[in-house]
Write a structure and sequence with these properties.
2 copies of one chain form a homodimer. Chain A is of the alpha/beta class. Chain A has 2 domains: 107-352, Type I PLP-dependent aspartate aminotransferase-like (Major domain) (Aspartate Aminotransferase, domain 2, 3-Layer(aba) Sandwich); 362-477, Aspartate Aminotransferase, domain 1 (Alpha-Beta Complex), CATH 3.90.1150.170. Chain A is 42% helix and 13% strand. Chain A is built from 14 helices and 12 strands. In chain A, the strands form 2 sheets. Chain A has a 7-stranded mixed sheet with strand order 2-8-7-6-5-3-4, with helices on both faces. In chain A, strands 1-11-12-10-9 form a 5-stranded mixed sheet. In chain A, helix 3 (92-104) runs antiparallel to helix 12, helix 5 packs across helix 11 and helix 13 (416-433) packs across helix 14 (460-477). Chain A is globular. The N and C termini of chain A lie far apart (63 Å).
Chain lengths: 479, 479
Amino acid sequence: MPATGDMPPEEFRRYGHEVIDWIADYFEQVGSYPVLPRVSPGDVAGQLPELAPEEPAEMSEILADFRDVLVPGVTHWNHPAFFGYFAISGSGPGVLGETLAAALNVNAMLWRTSPSATELEERALSWLRQLMGLPADFHGHIQDTASTSTMVALAGARERAGLGVREDGLTGRALPRLRVYCSEEAHSVVEKSCVTLGLGLSAVRRVATDEAFRLAVPALRAAIEADVAAGDLPIAVVATVGTTSTTAVDPVPEIADICHQHGLWLHVDAAYGGAAAILPEMRHILRGCELADSLTVNPHKWLFVPVDCSALYLRDPNVVRRAFAYTLDILKTSEGEAATNLMEYGPALGRRFRALKLWMVLRYFGRSGIADRIREHIRLAALFASWVDVDPEWERMAPTEFSTVCFRYHPPGASDAELDRVNQGILDALNESGETLLSQARLRGRLSLRLAIGNIRTAEEHLRAAWELLMETAMMNDG
Amino acid sequence: MPATGDMPPEEFRRYGHEVIDWIADYFEQVGSYPVLPRVSPGDVAGQLPELAPEEPAEMSEILADFRDVLVPGVTHWNHPAFFGYFAISGSGPGVLGETLAAALNVNAMLWRTSPSATELEERALSWLRQLMGLPADFHGHIQDTASTSTMVALAGARERAGLGVREDGLTGRALPRLRVYCSEEAHSVVEKSCVTLGLGLSAVRRVATDEAFRLAVPALRAAIEADVAAGDLPIAVVATVGTTSTTAVDPVPEIADICHQHGLWLHVDAAYGGAAAILPEMRHILRGCELADSLTVNPHKWLFVPVDCSALYLRDPNVVRRAFAYTLDILKTSEGEAATNLMEYGPALGRRFRALKLWMVLRYFGRSGIADRIREHIRLAALFASWVDVDPEWERMAPTEFSTVCFRYHPPGASDAELDRVNQGILDALNESGETLLSQARLRGRLSLRLAIGNIRTAEEHLRAAWELLMETAMMNDG
């Protein structure tokens, strides 16, 4: 290898083709891999040299190690029977978009550091906004994950509270305790954001939910009023459209009323559920969201875009810009206000060209193709729920709003404690089988199995196979 | 297109090969593109439909639009005469690593959600630690950018201050004003992090620098003592190894002494400069860093890895884990302490398989290949500095520690104000030419041109051409 320069173009071409061929084969055969790999902690690391490599290696050798050492330790999120967490898919056009973005390797921090990256990001997020039926005055940009999107939204709320937090921070003066509200079923990202922002875990008021795991509006109102009476300063409510455990949809219109009344920032976490609003028959899930100050939806969740890609919509992007814009001399440019510099809307300076993969996915499938796939996932979930509902030995644990089903094995006469034990056994056996992967959720203290459909390869046959395996496993475990 | 499923594997294979071929050609020809695209704000967006696509498009059409609409609006960070900001390179093996990571599309949040991703991340960061000569007890993980790495490090400092910030936050009680120190030349990421963390811009004390733009230790000592006397609470110092403007190296051993004496967290921002420590003759730049609490180096800057990939090393990862670990039921796993769950070490839950590209780059080039390339960049910068130094009409504006040269055109007899105007004219004309891209820096109030070498394709010929263009442009502008 010469002492300068990159991999020669012809070598890149040859190994690039090899990588693409491997991926094409992998996508075709991924259903034959175990979903969860059969490795214990340390197994993969044990096959990797402890000492850093001194000399260059041949790409053929590196790719062989990828196949022989790394792939056997990969959890296959692409497997059509992956029903864990939120099942996701980095579709073919998304993978090609990511490949091109890595090759261009631009930084979309300033307009000037890659005009196409900034302008495509704004355009692609305008398209997604239209597809979801969000208001035209919502301004969208991309963050890495919903963790960051939520944190940025709550930073906007903190800034808008009028305490001069950007300049003066929260210490060295007497400030009331700030409060953020969400339901018991909201994602832990609310707590993590509040820790990051200096509000602390105790700033978060988790409000009770109703029988369908939706935020209980009277409980929210009571919590805010109690805090105000105690001298605290409520600043924001995080409502969820598609909670993590049961995919419940909080009553956003009523929550928006309360926010309006108390001057609170309303952030909607639609990271998973928002995608469904692309279907006309599901548009209702975003009812009231036109009143939000911010909303996040993750194209890397249910819109077939590889991780990471979280869309953050802001009604007034200038609040967030006021919180975060801070420009070094070296980054000052001559375009002035004519150009948008997206680094001003969040904590990170470095920004990948994530819009490319989103644009390729939206173009390749079109609204109709995306809607077909999401509709099919919802149909499959309803079908699975119907199998659970008609079987007296199984019980559904929550309404099925989208493509995720919470349920448990429930032979007659068993106590909740016994059921927890039996269902944990079923889950462990199932996941160890390598045939499928499910998650668990604890609902009102009871263990629920949780099957999430979102993989682009999942078809009815995979669901039937999982159901049969569940029934077999239950029989084996119900000793 | 059927209503379900991904792009068919054979179609992925065909277009994947087309994408790889385009990249191979692009890498070969990138020197013939204009570095800065010849577009004005809105030009690219104006060629993209305002309405979201309804129907699927053929991949051939999408790739044609990529080439015809997007590429002409791209700033070519890959161009061998890209000398702006910090010049970076996503090398061939890095691009292939990113492609495979996008295809696997795993989330490295938990060990179980992809054991290979977690174990490779720890192993690759151990290799990088060895290559840089960092202590064996530094624990490394990957964040997206140095913005996040710095914020996480300062969150660690905030947590270690013993105020119970994770639980109780910073409001609702009397706390002293927290203080963070860095030099006048440190990156604005310190301010952005302090805004995010609720410390505020005014928490940041920017300390004077010496004649070589290094943090002045007596000024640091005086600032800390004054703040302590005023009842403030110093928590951290951010030292920089390779500042953004001039690539100065702060006196870390002396700073570490002060930190030790006052119980402050020492974070070292070696995002750019740290990579040079791979060369034995440059190892001295990390002198004293073995005493730091945290250190960040960005493989996406000068280690030929595509954005984003920031390595964060922590002496006591448990402090950061204490700040950020917060686990939902759905994410609880049975491996217990035997498995590392990397999501606990930062704000983000979703984590891409970034270790794959880093591993492929370290393997492909090996220590020797990486050292050769960095050494050549340093040689080129010294060569350019020598051209500036021997020419009486040009002036070097700062010591050249690494591969970045600060200089200006300085015909005899001109005032600083005239020189600012002339040099701004040279910079604008140069960047508009499309032949090369430089940045500016303001040093002690004077405008400096700034040439950063870091692109893997940059050879002596590109540097000579830039130097000739600079001299021609100066002659034209010096009417």
